[in-house]
Amino acid sequence: MIGKLVLSLLLIGSLEASLLDFQKIDRAKQDYLNGNYSKSLKLFKSLNKDEPELNYNIANTLYKLARYKEAIKYYKRSLGGKVNELERRYNLGNCYFKLKDYDSAILAYKYALKIDNSDDVKHNLELAYKMKYKPKKRKKDTKKSNKKGKDKGKNSKNNKKSKKIDKKSQTSSKLTKDELKKLKKLEQEKSLKSHLKKMLKNSLKGKKVPVIMYRLDRNESSKIKIELKPW
C-alpha cells in the first residue's frame, strides 16, 4: 500500500486578509476536517490569493477529491513560505503515483529522501519501482484468449442447437407400436419367402421333374379336362 499522505492544513498568516477572509479560512478548515472537501475547496479558492500556504491547502483538498492533476499544479505553486518541503515533495510523489506516472513519482520521492531519510518515503519509492518494472500483459495474448473464449461460446451454442435438432429428429423418427408390429411381420414374411426359395433350389438340384400322364375317361371324351395334380 502507498504511504499516508501528509495533509496538514497550514495557517495563512502572511495574507493581508480582512476579517471576512479569516472567517472563510476557518470555515474551510472545518469543512476539510469534517470531510466536506468540495465546500472547503470553494472557500479556499474564493480567497483569490496566490500564497504558498493557500496553494498547499488547495492541493490537499484536491487530492482528497481525487483530482490529482489539479493537485499537482497547486503543489508546484506552493513552493516556499511556511510549507514543509519534505511534505510537499512527498505529496507530489503520491499524486504522480495515483496517476501511474511512476517515473515522476520516483523523482519526487528521491528529492524527499534528500531532505529526510523517512521510512514512509522509502516504502513508497520501493513500491513505485516495483510498479514501474511490473511485467505487462501482452495485448496479443489477451486478444487471442478473448477470441478463444468467443469461439468456445459459439461452439457450445452450436452444440446445444445440434443436440436440440437431434432430439427433434429422434422424436419425429419414432414409430408407433402398430407400425412397429407391421414392420416386424413384413420382415418375418420376407425371411420366410427367401428361406423357402432356398429350400426349393436345393431340393431340385440334379433332379428331373416327373411327367404325369392322366387317363381320359370315355364318358367325358367330349369334355376334355386336364387336371394337374401334384405327385
| Binned strand content | under 5%
Shape assignment: rod-shaped
CATH fold descriptor of the domain at 4-8 and 17-83: Serine Threonine Protein Phosphatase 5, Tetratricopeptide repeat
What is the terminal separation in angstroms?
114 Å
Rg measurement, Å:
52 Å
Task: Summarize the main sheet.
Answer: none
CATH architectural designation of the domain at 4-8 and 17-83: Alpha Horseshoe
Secondary-structure class: mainly alpha
Mean pLDDT across the residues is 76
Provide the succession of SSEs.
HHHHHHHHH
Please write the CATH class name of the domain at 4-8 and 17-83: Mainly Alpha
Name of the CATH homologous superfamily of the domain at 4-8 and 17-83: Tetratricopeptide repeat domain
Indicate the topology.
Elements: H1 19-33, H2 37-45, H3 52-64, H4 68-76, H5 85-98, H6 102-115, H7 119-132, H8 139-173, H9 177-204
Description:
20% of the residues are buried. This protein is mostly helical. The N and C termini lie far apart (114 Å). It has helices at 19-33, 37-45, 52-64, 68-76, 85-98, 102-115, 119-132, 139-173, 177-204. Mean pLDDT is 76; it is low at 207-218 and 220-231. The radius of gyration is 52 Å and the shape is rod-shaped.
Structural descriptors:
single chain; 231 residues; mainly alpha; disordered C terminus
Brief sketch in words of this structure:
The chain is mostly helical and 231 residues long. Helices cover 65% and strands 0% of the residues.
